[in-house]
Amino acid sequence: MDRRNFLRTASASLIALPSALTWMAGATSASTNSGVALPADGDVDEEALSILVDAADELGSSALASDVRAGSPRSQARTIRRLVAPFVSPRSRHHHSGEFFDSILERLRVLGRQQHDNGTFTIGNIQSPPDTGFLIEDLGVMVSLLRADDHPRRRALAQPVERMMRRAGPGLVNGGVHTPNHRWKLVSALARIHDVRPDAAYVQRIDDWLGEGIDQAPDAMYSERSPTYAAEVTNLSLLAAAWVLDRPELLDGVRRNLEMYLYLTEENGEVEAIHSRRQDQDHRLRHVRDFYLQYREFALRDDDGRFSAVVKGIEQRDAEHLGDAFANVLERPELVAVLPEPADVPTDYAETFPSAQLARVRRGTTSASIFGGTDWYQDGEQTHLFNRIGSGISTNPTFLKLRHGDAILEAVRMSPVFFSMGHFRSNGLEVVGDGVYRLHNELAIPYALPLPEEHRREDGDYRHTNSIDGRYFSKLDFPNRPHHFVTLRTEVLVTEVADGFDLDFTVDETDDVNVTIELSFRPGGELSGVEPETDDGAYRLLDGHGSYRVGDDVIEFGPGSDTGYVDMASGEQYSVHNGGLPPLSDQRVYITGVTPFEHRLQLRFRRPY
């Protein structure tokens, strides 16, 4: 099957594929490039196309004004792509602009000089195959567009792009990766290069990577559990490889992942990421618009009205952010066909995602994310990652996040002052009743006892080892020592009630341990009923109830507690390197107590009278 006809199926919802550039010019006759009839009147989503053209034109203008020599090779490639898409499109106000031509040509020369002899580029990582793969994706789209263009000097632009792609082939065939998603980026990049210069070695290496199996759990979560990398790398790469290589078997995992994200997306388009193993677990905002073309493709492919509704919501909210999609639509104009009639997306559910130990509850304009799946624990046991902080490890101590309209409780966290272990992190998530979720752990902190006689040394020079709780290192040969332990048991029951949630805290086993609960609200609202704790926006709830209000949306919380003191220590792993995990928000409220500690915190959704 010709890859340019890949998406055509028997489904009446799909359209025949014309030449991208002829169609985008609004031509009314059959394309001489593809020989495929143009879609009938009404088959093009003109509203969506106008949004993409306008956004791409703005990006193109910004790209033209940017410093030709600034940025990494990866950002340079994306800048060139932002120039190429308007340049080749008769719908763009920059169509065949002389300024654009000159800028593209100059930037290609700069980019070409940055390519190493082995075909790779350095982008932070030295001579990086996966980072080079990100460039190749952009270069591959550009080649498709420039080959189809009718500008008399298009080859002057297409040839250096093709040359860089061909040079990159050996480096990507022989190179390796750092993270799971890098494999799929190499797959799509090699597919693009193979399309420019076919080579059996490229296909063999593609098969080697795919032969490892896609790292997707039964609940459709990829192993990195990151919306950033799902949207921008894994789904994108698998779809590109499926299209270029005609491998439809790669589509099902993407489809299931998009189904899953229906339940991780908020009313305003934000996507939950507290469970991620990557950088986005730090509460940076991620948006469903990053999945825009993926939802559009499967809305058309599957005649799925729910996906159509997601797409239309993105176009209404985020039109100015969609400019980069225009190049893909030029290459594959079937993606901008008229969508199926939108259908209702899920807005009333309680779903769990076992691979991430995450629960999502949504009731219309309110929602909750309940998280117990850090990599410190698995299947009820501590893992080899226990009490470790590092790239690729899920360690976010947020165990609850709530939304009530525009009022957002960004994070509920808790920190006992217990041997510098820092925040509470749950040993999994249990559903223990209808709307009741259990989070818990038990810390057993050792004191090392004298070495048995058979392990003693006269010179006192013992192995430099990690303490068995992972907190510190010393030349004490910890593995061969007996220990005695001090324990702390923590349980949090999260219960959905008619107008909010109850949190029942129990912390015991060792007395006189100070406990601090932190409620971090998204900046921009108004707090009341609380007492200032510090001069940087921290407050304390000593008794009664407080509230956080944004417009007409209110989250009430309480009662407070006047025992204990505020100490949200991050733990040894954070503090020894960078002074501790910074607070999420300037609008945060503390509730404190001392073990044995039992406290019910009521979180209620209100509207002011």
Structure report:
- The protein starts with 19 loop residues before the first helix and ends with a strand.
- It has 609 residues and is an alpha+beta fold.
- 32% of the residues lie in helices and 22% in strands.
- It has helices spanning 20-24, 46-65, 73-88, 98-113, 129-148, 154-174, 180-196, 200-210, 227-245, 251-261, 292-302, 305-317, 325-331, 572-578; strands spanning 121-123, 125-128, 348-353, 358-363, 366-371, 377-378, 381-382, 400-404, 407-416, 429-433, 436-448, 465-466, 473-474, 483-497, 500-508, 514-521, 526-528, 531-532, 538-540, 546-550, 553-558, 587-594, 597-606.
- Strands 3-4-5-8-9-16-22-19-18 form a 9-stranded mixed β-sheet, with no helix packed on it.
- α4 (98-113) packs parallel to α6.
- Residues 1-41 have low confidence and may be disordered.
- A hairpin with a 2-residue loop joins β4 (358-363) and β5.
- It contains 14 helices and 23 strands.
